Amino acid sequence: MNILLVEDDPRIADFLLRGLRAEGHQVQRAANGHDGLALAQDAARHAQPADPPTVLVLDLMLPGMNGMEICQTLRAAGVALPILMLTALGSLEDRVAGLRMGADDYLCKPFEFEELLARLEALARRARPLQPGRLSRLQVGDLVLDRESMKATRAGQALTLTARELALLELLMSSPGRLFSRERILASVWGHSEDPLTNVVDVYIRRLRSKIDEGRETPLIQTVRGLGYRLEAPPPAT
């Protein structure tokens, strides 16, 4: 997903930039209200239907122009960009005011990074309707991925996966038995800007395998040495 971060606190901004980029998201930052509004307006003007969803993370207290004003200006102009508002003001009145100005969600500081990530993923899912003909549920053996909720289970047990692990799992499950090269996985899940010499694919395959296959009688993720990876259920025993 593309994330527009409007946050004037350099410590918080640095923490979020590093964390969100580590999860594979593209992040642009503005440090004041006027630059944040321009950033959001530019993103809305150049958005294409095939682009990844864009979410605006908007601090409430900003120099130059506060988050409420930015939100109100965008909504008045018909910009439907999902907005997650961050603030140290956590009263009911503040939350209601932010939502009435057009924010889609509201998160009070201090917050846990995992909660922020989950809220961003939920906003991104709502902003991107399912494509026609696209299966909403993928299943390989006893592994199931619900594409609407982006939740995975194996043998009925919920799997705790990050956004990048879910994207990798979705790719592998979209074509069971198909061999995906590291290069194809890298381009599909991380984008063409990623260094082709990185070992990030192997790292994430290991992480995914540890959560899906470790301790299971039937492993689903297979390595074809020198060629890549595939995910498939073995044929039933005869």
TrEMBL record:
PANTHER family: REGULATOR OF RPOS (PTHR48111:SF22)
Residue ranges constituting the Response regulatory domain according to the UniProt record: 2-124
UniProt DNA-binding region: 135-233
Name recorded for this polypeptide: Response regulator transcription factor
Family annotation (PROSITE patterns): OMPR_PHOB (PS51755), RESPONSE_REGULATORY (PS50110)
OmpR/PhoB-type domain ranges (all copies): 135-233
Keyword line: DNA-binding, Phosphoprotein, Transcription, Transcription regulation, Two-component regulatory system
Record organism: Hydrogenophaga luteola
One Pfam family per UniProt: Trans_reg_C
Electron transport recorded as keyword: no
Modification sites for 4-aspartylphosphate: 59
